[in-house]
Structures are given as C-alpha cells and as structure tokens.
C-alpha cells in the first residue's frame, strides 16, 4: 500500500523501463479486472501530430462556459505530473494520485504474471485516468488525448461520442511509419463505427485515407477547408481573430489569445465539435459559450509569454511541424523584432530540419541540453550546423542567463523552444 505521493510517483515512473509497447491487449485485460470503467463516461477522443493539447483546452473551456464539468487526460505534463488527469483544468490532488495507484497496482502487477507481460508507464497512467473518471469522479464529459498514434494507442479502447484528428506530421516515424499515408492510417485508427469525426488534416493523400476510413466506418466526417471554413482571419496584438463558416451558419469575429494561425485551426476544430454536440443533443451550448470559451483558453508552454520587459517566450515546438508553426507565428506577430533563440530537443526528432527552420528567423541560435535520457547534447546539436551566430552551452540555466543578457534593446526578444520536457524545466526557472 502506497502511503505518500512520492512513493506513488516513483512506482509510476519505474514503469518507464518497459519502454513503449503499442497494443490494446494489456489495456483490455486490466480494464476488465477493474470492471471496465471506460464504459461509464461520455468521452471525446483527440489524436493528431500537433495541436491536441490546445484543441482539448479550447473544447474544455467551451464546455465549461456551458456549465459542464469536464475531465481531461493529456500528455506530457508541464508543471506537475498530476495535470495529466485534470478536472476543469485543475490537476487532481496528490491524495487522489495515491488512491489511484493503490487501486490499479494489484491489477498491473497481476498482469505481469500473464503472457501479456508488463504494463508501460503510459498504460498505467491511462488506466488510472479511466478508473478515476469511470469510477471515482464522473464528469459530464471527458476528453482523452492520444499519447502516440491512434490505432494501437492505449486510449483507443475508448467508446467515444466524438473523435477529432487535428493534423498529420512527421513525428515518431520509427513507430508510426515514414510516410504521410502510413502515419495517417495510424491516426485514423481512432475512427469508430458510426462515431462522427472532425478533422483539420490537410494533405491530399492524408485526406483520402481519412475520407475512406470514415466512409468504411459510416462515421460522419467534417473536414476543415471542405465542410467548414476559416474566413476573415487577421492577427491582433492580443492574439488572433477569425470567422468560422459551418453548415449550420457562420460565427463571426471569434477571438483567441493563443497566437498563430495553427491555433485558429485548433480553435475551429473545437468550435465545430461544440456545434456538433449542440446540434445532436449531446450538450446545450450557446454561441456566447463558444465565444467566451475560445477567448478564455490558455495552454501553458505553447507560445507562452513569460515576461514583457525583456520579452521572453517559451514554446514547446518539439517536432518540425511545431517549429514551422512557431516560425510562422513569429513572422506574423514579431516581424520587427531581433529574435534570439535557445533550443534543445530529443534524439528521436528531426533536429537538422528543425534547426534549419529556426535559422530563418534567428538573429542568434544557442543549443543547450537538459537532464533527460534521450536529450541531445548541446555540442551534438552544434555539430549539425556550425555557423556564425550559432552557439552552444551544455548547461541550460547558463544558456538562459546568457540569452537574457543579449536582450539589451527594445527590439530584442528571447524564444526558448524545443522539447516539452525542456520547456517544463525552463518555465520553473523563469517563474
């Protein structure tokens, strides 16, 4: 029996040694032993390469504005491990975490005696979320974000009322596949028989797979750019403004405070999801709830301003698609600034292409490292591209201090970006 939070957390993290093991057999077995708690929730399932967390945040805020209590399951965490399982945006308590570990531990350890083998860390935290929302603290809605892929992701035992696929990009290619088609097939694995899908997937070959899969499952499909559209987009000092044309009508002058056109897409997915829930009797959601929910949404670690003077922003651009969105946002909102960048990433990422993209807007680029098993060393990143205005410093705290020292003029700004694990550490220091 676990008695302290640190004991519970250590037990969870100890599962990391079992790595990543795609598949649903272990999940199904454990859930059956626990009474199938995932059958007792109104769930929405979200997959995609980027934008899952932001889309979850927008939709959660809309539902909250409509008076509903909303549970979320997201990853990774930025401030505290508990935030992976949250209610109305608030992480569960340490006491709840201890209780959950003690509830699932016997089943997890019993699984090890079967031919199915050991449960991974992600499987354990997913089981805990199912148990929490299905047994301990039922919510009006629960939004689950996939961890990796979709088809064989631990969350894919869900029986959702709605699915969302944000986009397709090249990440985790060693598991999901090397081509857009292979990755899309994995993401499309969350599409269920008769369950509607809302998506912002935009590559032609990816759309074809999404359309074909949805048709085969008789799942109603709503594609951004085909079935609903962003119109009248403009950048604001405080975020973005756009209108959204849908089959049911147009929502004009929607305002979001999260910056970047990619956030307009994420917000559009959430708004379309809310309209669908309203139209099909799953929720009572007014236009004002959508407006206020989108405006109120904030997602830490995603183009998050840490200070104004000097201007310091952290952004968890942890893959090429994320870096492309970051560079686009900087060009839209900070074209007049001299941009200094500090970057660190994991070894399973396409570091070379990410660096080449960052160089397009960087007045200076500093590589650093952090304490994580799969993190690149700063000098390793530097060896990829040795050029003027490209530096390296292994100690990220020293790199951060040096980066701040470069901010001597009003037009100077500092961007700290890369792995979300790295951003988590930097945020603690800056706060």
Describe this entry's structure for a reader.
The protein has 431 residues and is an alpha/beta fold. The chain folds into two domains: 5-296, Mur-like, catalytic domain (UDP-N-acetylmuramoyl-L-alanine:D-glutamate ligase, 3-Layer(aba) Sandwich), CATH 3.40.1190; 304-430, Mur ligase, C-terminal domain (Protein-Tyrosine Phosphatase, Chain A, Alpha-Beta Complex), CATH 3.90.190.20. Helices cover 40% and strands 21% of the residues. The strands form three sheets. It has an eight-stranded mixed sheet with strand order 4-3-2-5-1-6-7-8, sandwiched between helices. Strands 12-13-17-14-15-16 form a six-stranded mixed sheet, with helices on both faces. α1 packs across α4 and α2 packs parallel to α5. It starts with a helix and ends with a helix.
Précis, in short:
With 431 residues, this protein is an alpha/beta fold.
Shape: globular
| Main pleated sheet | 8 strands, mixed
Total of domains: 2
Strand order of the largest sheet: 4-3-2-5-1-6-7-8
- Kindly provide the radius of gyration, computed on alpha-carbon positions and rounded to a whole number of angstroms: 21 Å
Please state roughly what percent of the residues sit in beta strands, choosing from under 5%, 5-15%, 15-25%, 25-35%, 35-45% or over 45%.
15-25%
Which topology of the largest domain does CATH recognise? UDP-N-acetylmuramoyl-L-alanine:D-glutamate ligase
Helical fraction: 25-40%
CATH architecture descriptor name of the largest domain: 3-Layer(aba) Sandwich
- Can you give the mean pLDDT? 95
The number of E-state strands comes to: 17
Distance between the termini: 35 Å
Q: Structural class of the helix and strand makeup? A: alpha/beta
CATH class of the largest domain: Alpha Beta
The low-pLDDT segments are: none
């Amino acid at each position: 029996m676990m008695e302290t939070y640190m004991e519970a957390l250590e037990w969870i993290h100890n599962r990391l040694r079992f790595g990543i093991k795609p598949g649903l057999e272990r999940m199904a077995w454990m859930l059956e032993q626990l009474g199938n708690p995932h059958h007792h929730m109104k769930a929405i399932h979200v997959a995609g390469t980027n934008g899952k967390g932001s889309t979850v945040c927008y939709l959660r805020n809309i539902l909250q504005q409509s008076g509903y209590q909303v549970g979320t399951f997201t990853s990774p965490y930025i401030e505290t491990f508990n935030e992976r399982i949250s209610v109305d945006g608030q992480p569960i308590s340490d006491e709840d975490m201890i209780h959950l570990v003690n509830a699932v531990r016997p089943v997890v350890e019993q699984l090890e005696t079967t031919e199915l083998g050991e449960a991974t860390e992600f499987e354990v935290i997913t089981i805990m979320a199912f148990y929490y929302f299905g047994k301990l603290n039922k919510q009006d809605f629960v939004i689950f974000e996939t961890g990796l892929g979709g088809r064989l992701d631990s969350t894919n035992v869900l029986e959702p009322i709605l699915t969302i696929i944000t986009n397709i990009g090249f990440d985790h290619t060693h598991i999901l596949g090397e081509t857009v088609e292979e990755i899309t097939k994995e993401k499309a694995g969350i599409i269920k028989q008769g369950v509607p899908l809302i998506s912002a997937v935009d590559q032609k070959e990816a759309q074809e797979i999404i359309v074909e899969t949805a048709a085969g499952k008789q799942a109603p499909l709503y594609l951004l750019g085909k079935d609903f559209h962003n119109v009248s987009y403009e950048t604001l000092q405080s975020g973005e403004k756009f209108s959204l044309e849908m089959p049911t009508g147009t929502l004009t002058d929607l305002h979001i405070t999260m910056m970047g056109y990619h956030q307009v897409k994420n917000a559009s997915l959430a708004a379309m999801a809310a309209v669908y829930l309203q139209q099909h009797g799953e929720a009572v959601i007014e236009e004002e709830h959508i407006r206020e929910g989108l405006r109120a949404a904030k997602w830490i670690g995603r183009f998050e301003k840490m200070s104004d003077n000097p201007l310091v922003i952290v952004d968890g651009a942890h893959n090429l698609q994320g870096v492309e969105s970051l560079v686009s946002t900087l060009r839209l909102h900070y074209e007049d600034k001299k941009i200094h960048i500090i970057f660190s990433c994991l070894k399973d990422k396409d570091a070379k292409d990410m660096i080449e993209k960052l160089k397009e807007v960087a007045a200076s680029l500093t590589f650093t490292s952090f304490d994580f098993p799969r993190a690149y060393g700063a000098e390793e990143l530097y060896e990829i591209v040795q050029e003027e205005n490209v530096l390296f410093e292994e100690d990220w705290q020293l790199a951060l201090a040096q980066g701040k020292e470069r901010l001597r003029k009003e037009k100077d700004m500092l961007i700290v970006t890369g792995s979300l694990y790295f951003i988590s550490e930097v945020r603690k220091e800056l706060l």
